[in-house]
Here is the input.
Amino acid sequence: MESLMIRRAPGVLVVVVAIMLQASSQICLGRHILSTGSGRPSDDETSTTQEVNYDKVLKSYWIHRDHPDSPASAASTYNTSSQSERIAAAARRSLTRAEYFSRRVLDASSSGNFDSPVEAVELDYAMAVSVGAPPRQFIVYADTGSDLVWLNCKPCIQCIVQPADNPFDPTQSTSYQEASCTDAACTEFPNPPTCVGTGPCDYTYGYGEGTQTSGIVAYETFTFTALDGSSFPIEHITFGCGQNETLNGFPGIDGLVGLGQGSFSLPSQLSLVSGFTDIFSYCLIPFASTTPNYSTFYFGVPETNISTYTPIYGNAVVPAATYYYVNVTGISVGDVLLDIPADFFYISTDGSGGIIFDSGTTLTLLSGVAYDAVLQEFENQFNFPIVSNSPTVCFDVSSSTASTIYPTIVLHLQSVSGAEPVDFVLYPENVLLPFLETGALCLSIMSVPAGSTMIIGNTAQADHEMVFDRVNRQIGWASTTRT
Here is the structure.
């Protein structure tokens, strides 16, 4: 087994991101393509119809902000925070993120102007990217709920990193190029910046609650790791060279990579590279895990052995909302199909509501009758005392035994064929988070106000091989812990 180490020292960032999990771990078992000598799957391992160029498949690894090896933890109070405090913080992040998603959509539907392409605060998973010529590595948050790619850049007037952390220096890269006011990257950018003549394209993004980032729209070479371990540079990636940020929730992080459906997200830009397939996939390590395991992430290839898909939808009322909307047709707890109206998860006529898959939100967020029905039936089947004063509904399981039944929750989603729904199964580890200090188990599902954007968060997605097949407009999955 290889190891992973992320360390900051004055003026330098050292990142070694490589780990393969042993099959016995039964957690994110990895991909069959990595078990072949060529790095390519055998014929019976490919379950989609994609024509994939395996010479243009890029790999990386994600690490959760609360993992003890993450740069965010190293820069914050991880070692002094209890598990219950981390779960409480995750609950606050999830609610804040849902509120902001909903506000952005409603603001856009009323004004015709999408407020901001990025939810830039309090994200969960970080990854390494190499930028510039010669390339330097940076740690950035990865987010399926946004589009913009940006880094802290010199000269940092007010950045989210300290000067000793050595942010990206455009003067030290031979491939750096500023976008001019007449470039499409400037004129077509969300909320186009105010420019003067043919000068540089300065941008400012406000994220609500007084937070913003500003800097210069620019182009750079991003270097990735290919399946065979070689370097794979991609030129002329549009990104924000940020010089002035007032942002929260970014300790130890250098920027953000948006993975949304918009044209400026990283997968959208990579899809323009000749021979590159517009697909990305990942398998997330559970939120509560602190073992030395790291989440796999791939650009340009579908997960193998995946045959379960649901269509991706856009928001017809607010096209600028680039979230990955899906159609949930119902929810079951155990064997009980809940009484929830079939159209409850639809996007409303004002663009609000709907339900999305999002890697940047920890918990799963449901509103109204959906949340009430799930909670009531879960309590009926999981007959343990409820612990009061908790960030989510928590259960005292001190009297549990080896024979205790932990209910599964099943999200029934529209199939690609439109026939019988397909099932996204939330196993106990996707549904219950451990409060290690008290022995309680807390529900990973919370309530949000009516009309909010509902979210299938990363705890629900953990231990599932997830594929975002943007070519065929579908999301696929397979559990790595169940057969």
